[in-house]
């Protein structure tokens, strides 16, 4: 294992049984076909569950809606970006030449995605308990308090709460396509609510931005229908 990755293991406080998972987690799609996007997909779900359990323990008096808003603050790109910097992920990211030249090591969306991929890698390597412990360690230095509920909701959170308030299933997001070079892509994302047979599209400079755009479009459609 490269010294930089061995050092990252120490910062993660997790010794990988399968070092290939660690290497894949820090590999951007611009560098290799064996990249981190599938791990990111998995890590996103693990992260949300682990943060949910953390909030359930720490904020025992908050109702569901407020917990959802606090969680949205903790798993948003800006927060993950700061956590990634704390792990010194820019030092170990594997990027294609074009992406590296354009400053990809510092791009918040790439760093946030890599952090989620690392969480997914730990989950595959050692199970949920190890991944949850990693997430809880990452958030040890993050101030978590009920006042975080006052922060404005993002579109995805607002849509989720709208559906939950009506006892409906959560929306599904999928990347329909990408346009542009690897270091400057635009993501076309579809948001679907199966129970209502509705789908809307949105675009953004990252997968997250595309999802937010699609959620905004879906909220506008729902508002028009139910106004």
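Sequence proposed for the structure above (227 residues):
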């Amino acid at each position: 294992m490269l010294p930089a990755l061995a050092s990252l293991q120490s910062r993660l406080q997790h010794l990988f049984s399968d070092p290939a998972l660690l290497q894949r987690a820090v590999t951007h799609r611009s560098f290799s076909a064996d990249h981190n996007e599938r791990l990111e997909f998995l890590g996103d779900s693990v992260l949300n569950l682990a943060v949910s359990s953390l909030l359930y323990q720490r904020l025992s008096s908050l109702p569901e809606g407020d917990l959802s808003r606090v969680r949205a603050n903790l798993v948003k790109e800006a927060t993950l970006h700061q956590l990634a910097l704390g792990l010194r992920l820019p030092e170990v990211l594997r990027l294609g030449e074009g992406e590296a030249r354009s400053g990809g090591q510092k791009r918040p969306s790439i760093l946030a995605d890599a952090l989620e991929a690392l969480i997914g890698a730990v989950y595959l390597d050692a199970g949920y308990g190890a991944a949850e412990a990693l997430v809880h360690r990452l958030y040890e230095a993050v101030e978590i308090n009920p006042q975080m509920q006052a922060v404005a909701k993002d579109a995805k959170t607002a849509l989720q709460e709208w559906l939950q308030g009506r006892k409906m299933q959560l929306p599904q997001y999928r990347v329909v396509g990408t346009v542009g070079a690897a270091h400057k892509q635009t993501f076309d994302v579809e948001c679907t609510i199966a129970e209502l047979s509705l789908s809307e599209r949105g675009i953004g400079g990252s997968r997250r931005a595309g999802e937010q755009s699609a959620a905004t479009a879906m909220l506008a459609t729902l508002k028009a229908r139910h106004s």
